[in-house]
Amino acid sequence: xxxxxTSGKGVDYLHKILKQKPKTVTKAVFWKIPHNTLDKIxxxxxxxxxxxxxxxxxxxxxxxxxxxxxxxxxxxDMEEFLELLSFIGENYEPFKLGVxxxxxxxxxxxxxxxxxxxxxxNNPDHxxxxxxxxxxxxxxxxxxxxxxxxxxxxxxxxxxxMLESDLTEHDWQPWFKNNSWVLGSEFVKILDEREIDTENIxxxxxxxxxxxxxxxEIKRPGGGLNFWAEQKDHNNYxxxxxxxxxxxxxxxxxxxxxxEADSQKFRDRVGVKTIKPRCTLLFGRSLNWNDEQREAYRIxxxxxxxxxxxxxxxxxxxxxxxxxxxxxxSELRISPxxxxx
Length: 341
Prior knowledge:
By secondary structure, the protein is of the alpha+beta class. It has helices spanning 62-65, 78-96, 111-121, 126-135, 141-163, 169-178, 241-259, 264-270, 291-302, 312-323, 329-332; strands at 5-6, 12-20, 24-32, 43-51, 54-55, 58-59, 72-76, 187-190, 204-208, 213-218, 279-282, 307-310. It has three domains: 5-78, no CATH class; 83-158, no CATH class; 166-310, no CATH class. It contains eleven helices and twelve strands. The strands form three sheets. Strands 1-2-3-4-7 form a five-stranded antiparallel beta sheet. The chain has a five-stranded mixed beta sheet with strand order 8-9-10-11-12. Strand 1 and strand 2 form a beta hairpin.
């Protein structure tokens, strides 16, 4: 019978020997992180392989090995663990049987429906696939919700990876187009049209939640672009010339959009009315800001009525909060090394 134990720091855990060989032993452990929010469940999986050593010709037993450093180990967080379970459950059997291409669906779906879905997956219009799956109840609402959640989690991980490279605006534009949800709930969708006029092309023209036109302009997070000037002015942090140019460009776009507000031709082209448009400007990083810089940023944003400036780190943190991926206080106090293994 499996017995759940509790560590000295109040962490519940359960471990099992997966395989024991003459010189190594492989063990797995579940451990559950206590959170301040009672309804939040956060289970981790750790797998480690330990190597036997000898002292005076006597092998250590398993209990003694638990206090030794593992030869190798991996710890999966909640999202990774759930995705691993889904991956194994959906793919183990067809992979074992040698199936080259397959689509996991419920057993109750008839052959005709399966062929119909397969034909849709060869169609570039993926929205039709989603509508058909929903209409024919091929997946439950919870399964669809889980898939969307995992898609967003993967998008955030991709965002973090992209931040490690010095990418240009051209590289970032497709990511934001595919993940417009990170730009905020005030936006409903990205419009197909980007041109304000022949001389001004914004990164994104957006339909806001109130049905009117707004603008999103992005600059690269790196590339030598600085948010703050190198030197303070009267002991105050001031924005750099790079950011000043970006703000000027954003304000020019707002001006040109307002000039087109009464143009029926412009309204027909973009499909959204224009009244007092706002612009969100994405610029630079804020990961290593000090308290004084964060205060200066707050003051800076408060001085604009139609412009909001966000850094890539602001967007990343907001996305993590939306998905519930931010570490809370209780998690920060616990590491895998705190779990008996």
